[in-house]
Amino acid sequence: MDIYTQATQPITVMNPNNAVSPPLFQTSVYAFNDVEVVDELLAGIRTGYSYSRGGNPNTDALGDLIARLEGAEKGTITGSGTAALLTAILTLLPSPGRILVAREIYGGTVGVARNLLGPMGYTMEWVDTHDPEDIGRHFSQGPALLVLETLSNPLGRIAPLDQIIAEAHDRGISVIVDNTFATPFHANPQSWGADLVVHSLTKFIGGHSDLILGAVVGKRATVDRAQHIVDTSGMTPDPFAAWLAFRGARTLAVRMQQSSGNAMALATNLESLASIKHTYYPGLASHPDHQDARRLLERGFGSIVSVALTGGYDSVRDLIRRLKIVRFVPSLGDVSTTLSHPVVASHRELSTEEQVRIGIDASVIRISVGIESSQDIIDDFIQALT
Questions:
Q1: Parallel, antiparallel, or unpaired: how do β-strands 214-218 and 74-78 relate?
Q2: Please, where in the chain does CATH 3.90.1150.10 lie?
Q3: 197 by DSSP, 3-state: which?
Q4: 187-226 pLDDT, tens per residue?
């Protein structure tokens, strides 16, 4: 056999099933000896894999793990958190209709609902989830889909989600809950009745700033529809990213316990500094949603602390330059502490009026607290602020 041909032939290797770490299936396609087997696979008669756009052992294992963490029947993985949100919306609202979004929603969610789906005929409406009258007014106007966050980005607002979801279902309105900030460690939106829960696995579940993925979890029949959308639209996850996220998810509990404890310590210390106008953390008694946070969250209050600096944008710029340990990063969820500027990064999709409405301006920074020594994090902020 010619050397060129030899180099392309399959090699038989041992495939042990007792590996402690799950193996990586970094392949786009699978080979077969029988055309009927492929026909049965693609028809759904036989289980297995043929082409990784439609399924891969690593992505399926990760979907099962996220579903288990969320107490859901099934999960499917997408190429990003934004893809997860889009998939969930199209699953529950396949034809153009009303999308109700919580007033404090992440800017990227607004981008999907308004800028991507808007030209297709969907309409987006803001809902103040802290105002029962505003909720009732929107719910009474007919069929819709409601999109919520467990903990809002960036101010950590938490509404009475269990009550809102129950009222939405009474009006025939389906609900998506983005559980990225709380993670399954702190909250279980499935127990409140969420139809679908979405995640940016890029953040806390991946946990190491080395992957881009999303997840959609819920009842099996609903997630089956979501999985079909992922396949046909090509919002496909990469097997290696799924393998990394699976590894990260296995340490989620210990990382969140440490980082949320650090966040509480940092928020408590920052709250007393003269250079800080306001500290936003749902674990603080001063937070407007502290009581709902105590009622709905478990094992702490999350890893995100936001602050408004008295000196406005100039103080933000100076703080970023003076910090020695904490880095300026337009994302979150890493094992190390980072900060971001919502007006510049996460919420730039919003107009200035919309930013003000949710309580942010150029003075606000969002801190994603990591697992370092809490005292080291506190000391770095104090030296930079004073």
A1: antiparallel
A2: 252-385
A3: strand
A4: 999 999 999 999 999 999 999 999 999 999 999 999 999 9
Tokens of 70: 């969320």
pLDDT cut 70: percent of the chain above it: 98
Ranges in the chain annotated CATH 3.40.640.10 = 35-249
Task: Tell me the Cα Rg of the chain.
Answer: 22
In our burial notation (b when 16+ CB lie closer than 10 A, e otherwise), range 113-141 reads bbeebeeeebebebbbbbeeeebeebbee
d(CA 286, CA 302): 16
Dihedral pair phi/psi, residue 209, rounded to 5°: 55, 40
Q: Which two tokens stand for residue 371?
A: 């697992």
Q: Quick one: residue 123, left, alpha or beta (phi over 0 = left, psi -120 to 50 = alpha)?
A: beta
Closest CA to 158 of 255, 298, 347, 287: 287
CATH 3.90.79.10, domain 252-385, yes or no: no
Fold of 35-249: Aspartate Aminotransferase; domain 2 (3.40.640)
The pTM assigned to this predicted structure is 0.94
